[in-house]
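Supplementary notes for students who missed Thursday's class. We covered one full example, reproduced here. Read the sequence, then the structure, then the short commentary at the end.
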Amino acid sequence: MKDIPLLLPLIPDDPLMPLDTVQGFRVRPGFFEINGATSLPGAVNFTVHSHAASSCELLLYKREASEPYAVLRFPENYRIGNVYSMLVFGLDIGEFEYAYRLDGPRDPKKGLLFDKTKPLLDPYAKAVTGQSVWGSKPLPGSSYHARVVKNNFDWGNARQPLLPMQDLVIYELHVRGFTKHSSSQVRHPGTFAGLMEKIPYLKQLGITAVELMPIFEFDETMGKREVNGKTLLDYWGYNSVSFFAPNTSYSSQKEYNYEGHELKSLIKALHKNGIEVILDVVFNHTAEGNEDGPFFSFKGFDNNIYYMLTPDGHYYNFSGCGNTLNCNHPIVQQMILECLRYWVTVYRVDGFRFDLASILGRNEDGSPMNKPPLLQTLAFDPILGNVKLIAEAWDAGGLYQVGNFPSWKRWAEWNGKYRDDLRSFLKGDYWMAPEAAKRITGSPDLYTGQYRGYNSSINFITCHDGFTLCDLYSYNQKHNEANGWDNTDGTDDNRSWNCGCEGPTSAPAVCALRKRLIKNACAVLMCSRGTPMFLAGDEFGNSSMGNNNPYCQDNEISWINWKDLDANRELFNFFRFMIRFRKKHVSIRGGRGPCSFGFPFISLHTAVPFDSGITPDTKAMGVMYASQGERPDTDDIVYLGVNVYWEDITIQLPKLPPPYGWYLAANTAADTEDSCVAWNPKEMVYIANTFVLGLRSAAVFTACKRQELLPDQ
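Structure (token representation):
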């Protein structure tokens, strides 16, 4: 399949002919609207722009060489406005890498840092060289280069799942950490291919979307250090080098000039299995850091455009990582939009989660904007029309916008209040019941007006940042000593409980209680209005050994230990059941028309039916969902009961019209796995209107016609 440039209408039908010669290379003015480097028949188009540069040079390198074999200065007539564009004929894209050098004014107080001696990575690079071996620091004096990538992956007639937000069950994972542990037993551990080998597992679990922690090219060696004999890296990847290029060290093999092929194969396979792909993207800062950081790309093109600068030329640091991308400058807006469009059209990505997204709504002076143009542009862009846009609605500068993020009925949010309120409530803070009731029912106090109701709430109790679900009920305090910062890093607001013993224990009562609390969290999450998300490994009790900030731990602290799957098969089966239960019951996910019983779509209950007066003294509460079923002639009624108190509590279930009765689908207080969930509806236990909610437990009921569930005679 022939390479296809992104903007075909700009290319004439007749073959293009050289017009000039530069350093022995035949050239002509290029296509100024196609940013980056693009392979065309017989030539390569190089386009780059800088607002303040006075000249630009194209550097060509032999593969993996440190010095260029050719330096081509763009002729003056190869510049229109602030854009340099040149077609270079006779190049074999498999034989060279490229970079740029720009000259211009140098005045640090004005944010101008031009240096004609510095090779610069193309901001639109589709593949980055110089760090393709994981953890291997580039040699001193080396620089990042880019490669020209063939855009010839055959998607065939593959279609994206295009699932409604309420039908997603999001599974957050780290590509390397998911399969790097030897227990994963994959052929290509720690890679896109390794993750592809685990698709049958993901299907068995039942999730419908994976949210991949950063996969853009990043510098994991930034801050590389030794602590207690272990090498620490920037493992998580929130340290972008290039926004258009996949991390080459996540590929199982060298992909010279077809970088991204393995990732595309992964996405195609996930889609074939009905699983969407959401990328965790980092547009709030780059790996260039502050004044003391490296100088390899944006600083050399237009430092005072790409970064937020103080009046004296220093870097604002709303990201906590040294610099802040100037997202609402028109040039940066254009780059981010083109980037997202690229990942959607070329990689078929289904959605994006924006790290520290509140930064995307800050003005160039750092102040919050009422209608940030970037966020509005992304909300209404036609290419992104079916894409999930998910905001982490806060930043490191103190801006917290959960329930107040500029949305235009397009943006969803990581609901940090759901996480905090449910963590407190489920560990036994029963006085949080009024807040917990709001979160479970879709946070109606937060998501009105500009939002799309509960579809704007991404509900989560755990994510990469903080304790795993196992650790949430195993530790009272963080244990981040392995990070080398004397346990000062990571949040102290964990809202966790160790169940009476700090860390691992063999005490049967403690282990049983921890398992029950994990099941409670799963049951509540899967029975909450909104979109559930949980961290990979939570479904079988994976632990990070009490480290709630393992950003630098490329080892057993962060890697998924698949032996836990066998050890905690009961937890895994409970997660599977609750995910399947959620999928089966439309009333939980959002409902259809009203049910025939006359029940409201959502109702709250104390121990007494339809007593919605949940107060800080309420120790057990119920949430009932009622709607028309999947078919118009059916009803779908689900009741979630939660008791976070340390004693049993008797509740009364709402009275149902005959021939309906309540049946117990799941009960975390059950003694055995078989009695905990009912995989076969005919195994569900009929419940009269009274039920004893065991101490610190959750139970899920569904209304069914009694004669339909009578055991076979």
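Commentary. The chain is about 20% helix and 20% strand. The first strand starts at residue 20 and ends at 22. If anything here is unclear, bring it to office hours.
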